[in-house]
């Protein structure tokens, strides 16, 4: 899976949890750019945008994981 496809997959997961407008504010990437990347219409986007998406995604994913029962 290429870099663009990884970011696209992350955005697909994120937009199942957040609206594109909310996500735009959280990661400081324009909503239109989020839509274009998610739908595969924008392939050459900046590393800064990719880093913002990746960083937020990894933080969000970490908070979504549950601690197994009986462990702290």
UniProtKB/TrEMBL annotation:
<dbReference type="GO" id="GO:0003677">
    <property type="term" value="F:DNA binding"/>
</dbReference>
<dbReference type="InterPro" id="IPR001387">
    <property type="entry name" value="Cro/C1-type_HTH"/>
</dbReference>
<protein>
    <submittedName>
        <fullName>XRE family transcriptional regulator</fullName>
    </submittedName>
</protein>
<dbReference type="InterPro" id="IPR010982">
    <property type="entry name" value="Lambda_DNA-bd_dom_sf"/>
</dbReference>
């Amino acid at each position: 899976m290429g870099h663009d496809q990884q970011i696209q997959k992350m955005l697909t997961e994120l937009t199942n949890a957040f609206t594109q407008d909310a996500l735009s504010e959280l990661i400081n990437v324009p909503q239109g750019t989020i839509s274009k990347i998610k739908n595969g219409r924008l392939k050459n986007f900046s590393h800064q945008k990719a880093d913002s998406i990746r960083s937020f995604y990894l933080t969000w994913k970490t908070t979504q994981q549950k601690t197994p029962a009986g462990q702290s």
